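Thread amino acids onto this structure.
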C-alpha cells in the first residue's frame, strides 16, 4: 500500500468513526441519565422522596435527548456527499469501536448543537451581532457596493464553524469561502447550508447536557429552532466551504482580497503560523479582519507543543510579519454558545483588529524587525 492510499484509508476510517460517534449520541447520553437514576436509587428512602421532582426532571431531560437524537439520522443521511470522493456511510456498530474515543467525540456532538444555536437560531442573534457584525461592517465599508463588483472580491473565512459568517458575507455579493477542518462541523454545516429549506424547521436542545448552574430544569431544556433564515446565498455570489486544515489547504500566495477570522487565531498550537499564512495568501493591499479572545485551545493539552503569547506579543508578531495595523480595539463584550438562562455566564473581552498587507513591500517604510506601528498605542486606540 502506498503512502497516499494509506492516508486515504486513514481519512476514511476517521470519517466513519465520526459518523459512529454521531450515531452513539442517543445511547451514550441516555446511559449518562441511567447512571444518575441509579445514583438516585441508591440514596436513602427519604432523600429519594425529597428528590422526586429531580427524578421527574431526568425523565423530561430524557425526552429532549430523544428529540436531539431524531435529528442525527437526518444529518447523516447525506453526510457522504460532503466530499467529492463520496464515502460509504456504512459503519461498524459502535460496540465494535473504542468506547473512549466515542465518548471524547460525544463532546463534539454536543458542541455542534450549541453551535447551531449560535449560528442558525434567532436566539443566537445577539452573539452574532457581538461577534460577526464588527467584521461585516469593516468588510462592507472597505468594499462598498457602488465602487466594487463584490463578486470579484475574494473573502476567506478560516475556522468557519457552521458557516454563518461566511454565508452572510457571500449574501452581500462577495465571493466567499469558509474553511473548516472539524468533520462534526462540516457534516452539520453541509446539512444546514444545502438541505434546510424552511425557516425554523428543526428544534433542538443545545444545553440539555449542561447539568450544572440551572435555576430550574426548564433552563437546561431551553430549545431553539433553526435555521432562522433559509440559507440560500444570492445566485451571483460564490459561496463555498472547504474541508481541511487551513495551513495545508491554502498554499497560493497573493490570492485573497480579505481574510476574516472570528474566534479562530487561538486555535493554533503556534499562532505565528496562522499569522504568516494569512499574510502569505492575502493579495498586496489585502485586508485581515479579526475578532476574538486568546483562549489558546492547545494550551492544556499534555502532548501538544503550544505557545500562548499575550495579545501584546501577538501584535508585535503581526507587525514583524509585515502587516500595517489600521484598527485595534479591546474589551468587546462577546459570548460564545452561551445559555442565556445559566447561572454561569462566560463573556470574553475580545479584541478586534484590522490590518493590511502593504501594497508594495518596497514602499513600506517599516523597519522589518520592529514593525510599523507603535505597539503600545494599539492598546489605547
Ligand atoms: C472557536 S470555533 C469558531 C467558529 C466560528 N468562527 C464562530 O465564531 O462561531 C473555531 C473553529 O475553527 C476550526 N479550526 C481550528 N483550527 C483549524 C484549522 N487549522 N483549519 C481549519 N479549521 C480550524 C475549529 O474546528 C472550529 O470550528
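Threaded sequence (381 positions):
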Amino acid at each position: 500500500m502506498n503512502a497516499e492510499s494509506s492516508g486515504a484509508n486513514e481519512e476514511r476510517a476517521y470519517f466513519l468513526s465520526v459518523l459512529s460517534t454521531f450515531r452513539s449520541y442517543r445511547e451514550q447520553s441516555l446511559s449518562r441519565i441511567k447512571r444518575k437514576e441509579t445514583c438516585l436509587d441508591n440514596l436513602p428512602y427519604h432523600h429519594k422522596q425529597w428528590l422526586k421532582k429531580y427524578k421527574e426532571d431526568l425523565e423530561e431531560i430524557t425526552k429532549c435527548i430523544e428529540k436531539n437524537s431524531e435529528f442525527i439520522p437526518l444529518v447523516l443521511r447525506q453526510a457522504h456527499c460532503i466530499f467529492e470522493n463520496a464515502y460509504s456511510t456504512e459503519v461498524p456498530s459502535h460496540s465494535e469501536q473504542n468506547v473512549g474515543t466515542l465518548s471524547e467525540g460525544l463532546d463534539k456532538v454536543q458542541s455542534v448543537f450549541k453551535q447551531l444555536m449560535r449560528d442558525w437560531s434567532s436566539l443566537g442573534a445577539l452573539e452574532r451581532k457581538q461577534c460577526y457584525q464588527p467584521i461585516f461592517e469593516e468588510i462592507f465599508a472597505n468594499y462598498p457596493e457602488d465602487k466594487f463588483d463584490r463578486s470579484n472580491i475574494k473573502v476567506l473565512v478560516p475556522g468557519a464553524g457552521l458557516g454563518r459568517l461566511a454565508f452572510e458575507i457571500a449574501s452581500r455579493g462577495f465571493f466567499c469561502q469558509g474553511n473548516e477542518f472539524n468533520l462534526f462541523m462540516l457534516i452539520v454545516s453541509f446539512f444546514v447550508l444545502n438541505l434546510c429549506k424552511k425557516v425554523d424547521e428543526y428544534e433542538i436542545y443545545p444545553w440539555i447536557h449542561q447539568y450544572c448552574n440551572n435555576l430550574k430544569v426548564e433552563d437546561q431544556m431551553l430549545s431553539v429552532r433553526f435555521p432562522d433564515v433559509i440559507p440560500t446565498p444570492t445566485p451571483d455570489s460564490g459561496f463555498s466551504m472547504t474541508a481541511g486544515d487551513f495551513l495545508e489547504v491554502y498554499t497560493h500566495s497573493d490570492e485573497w482580497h480579505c481574510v476574516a477570522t472570528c474566534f479562530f487565531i487561538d486555535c493554533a498550537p503556534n499562532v505565528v503560523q496562522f499569522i504568516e499564512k494569512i499574510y502569505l495568501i492575502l493579495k498586496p493591499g489585502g485586508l485581515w479582519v479579526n475578532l476574538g479572545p486568546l483562549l489558546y485551545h492547545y494550551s492544556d493539552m499534555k502532548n501538544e507543543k503550544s505557545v500562548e503569547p499575550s495579545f501584546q506579543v501577538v501584535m508585535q508578531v503581526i507587525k514583524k510579519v509585515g502587516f500595517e495595523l489600521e484598527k485595534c480595539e479591546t474589551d468587546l463584550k462577546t459570548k460564545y454558545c452561551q445559555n442565556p438562562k445559566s447561572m454561569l455566564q462566560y463573556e470574553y473581552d475580545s479584541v478586534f483588529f484590522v490590518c493590511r498587507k502593504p501594497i508594495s513591500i518596497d514602499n513600506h517604510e517599516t523597519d522589518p524587525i520592529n514593525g510599523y506601528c507603535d505597539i503600545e498605542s494599539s492598546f489605547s486606540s
